[in-house]
Specification:
InterPro entries: MdtA-like_b-barrel (IPR058626), MdtA-like_BSH (IPR058625), MdtA-like_C (IPR058627), MdtA-like_HH (IPR058624), RND_pump_MFP (IPR006143). It is found in: Cell membrane. By secondary structure, the chain is an alpha+beta fold. 32% of the residues lie in helices and 38% in strands. The protein has four domains: 92 residues, Beta Barrel (conserved putative lor/sdh protein from methanococcus maripaludis s2 fold); 97 residues, Beta Barrel (Elongation Factor Tu (Ef-tu), domain 3); 64 residues, OB fold (Dihydrolipoamide Acetyltransferase, E2P), CATH 2.40.50.100; 74 residues, Helix Hairpins (Orthogonal Bundle), CATH 1.10.287. The radius of gyration is 47 Å and the shape is elongated. It starts with a helix and ends with a helix.
C-alpha cells in the first residue's frame, strides 16, 4: 500500500513540473517573437556626415615659393682712404637715411681744403693787381702800346679762369672732406660690421664697412608657371593683385602685399616667370633671406558651386561624389571639378547648390544605401 501511494505522488509532481516548464517556455518564446516582430526589417542605416553644396565667390590663387629680400640693399664703402676714428652704429640697428655710420680721420682732407682756399685768395690778389695795371694801360691811351694793353687784358682773363679753377679745387677738397663722414644712404637695418675702429680703409677695396637692407617696405621674389603669365598681366593691368606671404610650411599667414613687377623674361629652363611683390612690413615679420610660401590672387569666380574636398572621391571611371536624396538614400554622382583651395573644391558639373553630399563615412556606403546623416559643423553653424 505504501509503495503504490508513493508512486502516485511522484507521478503527480513530475506532471506538474512538465506543465510549468512548458508554460514558461511558451511565454519566453512568445515574448521574444513579439520583440523580433517589432524590429524593422532590412540593414541598419549607415552613419555618415553630410554637407550642403554651396554657391559662393571662390578666389583663384597661384601658390609658389619665394625669398624675401631688402627693397633696397646697399654695401656702404668708404670713398676716401684713411683711418677709421669711430664706428657710430650697433650691429642690427635700424638706421635712418643720413645717420652717422663711421668717421674717418679728416685732418689730411681739411688741410687740402685750407690749401685750396689759400690758393684762391692768392689768385684773387693777383687778379686785382692785373686789373689795376689794365686800367693804367687803358688810361695812358696812345702812350701805351696796343701790345702792352692786349697782353695785360689776357693776363686778367687768365687769372679770372684760375680763380674759377680754384673754386673747383675747393669744391673737390670739400667733397673729399665730407666723404670722411660716412652716413647711411638709405633707411634700413644694418648687418654685421666688416671693419673695426682703428683700421685703415681704402676706396679701392671691395669690402664695405657694413651692409644696409631696407625692410620698410620689403620685397619678395617668387615664381609662377609661364602658362599663367597672360592672365597675370591682364589682371595686373586692370587692378592691383594681392599677394599673401605664408611660412614655408604654408600654415601661418605672415603678411599681405601687392604684386609690383612681372619680370621681362621667362626662364626657359624651368618654364616659370619671376615676380616681385612689395609688403609694408611695419611689424618686421618679413626678413631678408627668409624662405616663404606665396599665394597670388589672380581672380575670383562669382557664384561658383563649391563642396568640401572630402566630398570628392576617386573611382575607376573618374571622380564622383555620394549625394543624399530626400529619402536618405545615397546615390553616385559623376562630377567634374575645377580649382581646389583651402579645403574647398569648385564643381563644374554633376552637383548643384543645395544638394547634400557625404563628406565622411563613404567607405561603408553603396549606391542606394540608407544613411543616417550627421550635419557637418559648418552646416550646423549656418543653420543657427
Amino acid at each position: 500500500m505504501m509503495t503504490r501511494a508513493h508512486l502516485r505522488w511522484t507521478g503527480i509532481l513530475l506532471l506538474a513540473v512538465l506543465i510549468g516548464g512548458g508554460t514558461a517556455a511558451w511565454r519566453y518564446h512568445g515574448h521574444a517573437g513579439e520583440q523580433q516582430s517589432d524590429r524593422p526589417h532590412g540593414p541598419a542605416p549607415v552613419p555618415v556626415k553630410i554637407a550642403r553644396v554651396d554657391s559662393s565667390d571662390f578666389p583663384i590663387y597661384l601658390t609658389g615659393l619665394g625669398t624675401v629680400q631688402g627693397f633696397n640693399t646697399v654695401v656702404v664703402r668708404t670713398r676716401v682712404d684713411g683711418q677709421i676714428d669711430r664706428i657710430a652704429f650697433t650691429e642690427g640697428q635700424i638706421v635712418k637715411e643720413g645717420d652717422l655710420l663711421a668717421q674717418i680721420d679728416p685732418r689730411p682732407f681739411q688741410a687740402a681744403l685750407d690749401q685750396a682756399k689759400a690758393k684762391k685768395q692768392q689768385d684773387e690778389a693777383n687778379l686785382a693787381n692785373a686789373n689795376l695795371d689794365l686800367q693804367r694801360y687803358t688810361k695812358l691811351g696812345e702812350f701805351a702800346t696796343k701790345q702792352q694793353t692786349d697782353t695785360q687784358r689776357s693776363t686778367v682773363q687768365q687769372l679770372t679762369a684760375q680763380i674759377a679753377s680754384d673754386d673747383g679745387a675747393i669744391a673737390n677738397a670739400q667733397t673729399q672732406l665730407d666723404y670722411t663722414t660716412v652716413k647711411a644712404p638709405i633707411a634700413g637695418v644694418v648687418g654685421f660690421r666688416q671693419v673695426d675702429q682703428g683700421n685703415i680703409v681704402n676706396a679701392s677695396t671691395q669690402t664695405g664697412i657694413v651692409t644696409i637692407a631696407q625692410i620698410e617696405p620689403i620685397a619678395v621674389i617668387f615664381t609662377a608657371p609661364e602658362q599663367h603669365l597672360v592672365d597675370i598681366n591682364a589682371q595686373l593691368a586692370a587692378h592691383p593683385l594681392e599677394v599673401d606671404a605664408y611660412t614655408s610650411d604654408g600654415k601661418r599667414l605672415l603678411s599681405k602685399g601687392t604684386l609690383s613687377v612681372v619680370n621681362n623674361t621667362v626662364d626657359t629652363t624651368s618654364g616659370t616667370i619671376r615676380l616681385k611683390a612689395v609688403f609694408d612690413n611695419k611689424d618686421h615679420v618679413l626678413w631678408p633671406g627668409l624662405s616663404i610660401s606665396t599665394r597670388l590672387l589672380v581672380t575670383t569666380l562669382q557664384n561658383a558651386t563649391v563642396v568640401p574636398d572630402d566630398a570628392v572621391q576617386h573611382g575607376i571611371d573618374g571622380l564622383y561624389a555620394f549625394a543624399v536624396g530626400a529619402d536618405s538614400k545615397a546615390e553616385v554622382r559623376k562630377i567634374k571639378v575645377g580649382r581646389s583651395i583651402d579645403g574647398r573644391t569648385v564643381i563644374e558639373d554633376g552637383l548643384a547648390p543645395g544638394d547634400r553630399v557625404i563628406v565622411a563615412g563613404q567607405y561603408k556606403v553603396q549606391p542606394g544605401s540608407v544613411v543616417a546623416a550627421a550635419v557637418t559643423s559648418a552646416d550646423a553653424a549656418k543653420g543657427q
